[in-house]
Amino acid sequence: MDPLSEVLSLLPIQGSVFAGLKAGGDWAIDFPPPDGIKFNAIVAGGCWLTVEGVEQAIPLEAGDCFLLSRRRAFALSSDPTLPAIQADEIYRHAAKGIARCGTADGFFLLGGRFAFGDEAALLFDGLPPVAVIKGGSEQASVLNWALQRLAHELATASPGNAIVVQHLGHIMLVQVLRIYLAQEGSSTPGWLLAISDPRIGAAIQAIHADPARGWTVADLASIANVSRSTFALRFKQKAGIAPLEYVSRWRMQLAAHYLKANRATIASIAHTLGYESESAFSHAFRRLMKCSPSEYREKQKFTLSYPENGWLSG
C-alpha cells in the first residue's frame, strides 16, 4: 500500500455535513471558520470567494470546485464589496438542505464539510488555505460527481449511507491531494511534498512498510540511493522534520490508531512498533502526545470528535 493510501486508511470521517446554496441578484454571505475540511462545487452561475488571510478575492464559475483546508473565515458573494449577512441567518431557514439568498436563484453551490480527526494534520500541512480546481478538468468532474452523490446519500435514508459518505469524502480528498502533488513548484515543506519526491518518497514507503525496524539515517539514505548527509538535508527540506523524527511520529500515528481502535495492551502495542519496553514507548508517546498512552485511550472515549493539536505537523 502506498503511503497516501495507508494514511487515508487510518483516517475515518468523524462527521459530515452537506448543504446547498441558491442565490441571485446582489448577495454576500460571511461564513465562520469551518470545523474540518470543506469541499464546494459551483453547479450554476458564478461568485467571488474571499478567504481570511488570502489577499485577493477569487472568481469562481460553474464547474469550478474549491477546498478549504484551514479554520479560516470566508465569504461568498456576487460582489466582494457588498455588505454581507451571516451564514446562520439564511441556513437556519434552509429547506431540504438548500439555503437561499438574494432576489433570484441563478447561482447554485453544493458543499460538503468533513471532520477527519487529529490524523488529518499529516495530510493538510503544506496545503494552501484554499485550493481551487477549475472546471473542465477531470479532477473537477470527479469532485462534482462525488458531491452530487453525497447530496443524494444525505437526502435519502438508504442502507449503507454512512460507509458511502465516508468513501465519497475520501474520493474527494484524494482528488484534491493528487492535484496538489501534480503542481509544479510546490515548495512548502510538508508530508505531501516529501512523498512526491522519488527518493524521499521511497524512504517514507520503507518506513511505513516496517515501522518497527530500528531505522538509522544511513539505512534510509541507502534506500534513497544518496549519501547520508544529502539524504538528511533533503528529507528536512521536503518534510520539514528530520528522518528519525518522522519515524517516531509515524509510530505515534499508528499507536494512536491502535489505542482508539482496539483493546490491545499498551505493552503489545509497544512491541508491535519496535520499542524494547513499555516504558520506552510510553516516554516517546508522552513526548509527542503530551499525555501517557493510557490517558490518551481514556480521553478518546469521551472526546473522539475533538482533534489533537497538530502533533504530526512539522
TrEMBL record:
<dbReference type="InterPro" id="IPR009057">
    <property type="entry name" value="Homeodomain-like_sf"/>
</dbReference>
<dbReference type="Pfam" id="PF12852">
    <property type="entry name" value="Cupin_6"/>
</dbReference>
<dbReference type="Pfam" id="PF12833">
    <property type="entry name" value="HTH_18"/>
</dbReference>
<dbReference type="InterPro" id="IPR050204">
    <property type="entry name" value="AraC_XylS_family_regulators"/>
</dbReference>
<feature type="domain" description="HTH araC/xylS-type">
    <location>
        <begin position="201"/>
        <end position="299"/>
    </location>
</feature>
<keyword id="KW-0238">DNA-binding</keyword>
<dbReference type="InterPro" id="IPR032783">
    <property type="entry name" value="AraC_lig"/>
</dbReference>
<dbReference type="GO" id="GO:0043565">
    <property type="term" value="F:sequence-specific DNA binding"/>
</dbReference>
<dbReference type="InterPro" id="IPR018062">
    <property type="entry name" value="HTH_AraC-typ_CS"/>
</dbReference>
<keyword id="KW-0804">Transcription</keyword>
<keyword id="KW-0805">Transcription regulation</keyword>
<dbReference type="GO" id="GO:0003700">
    <property type="term" value="F:DNA-binding transcription factor activity"/>
</dbReference>
<protein>
    <submittedName>
        <fullName>AraC family transcriptional regulator</fullName>
    </submittedName>
</protein>
<dbReference type="InterPro" id="IPR018060">
    <property type="entry name" value="HTH_AraC"/>
</dbReference>
<dbReference type="InterPro" id="IPR020449">
    <property type="entry name" value="Tscrpt_reg_AraC-type_HTH"/>
</dbReference>
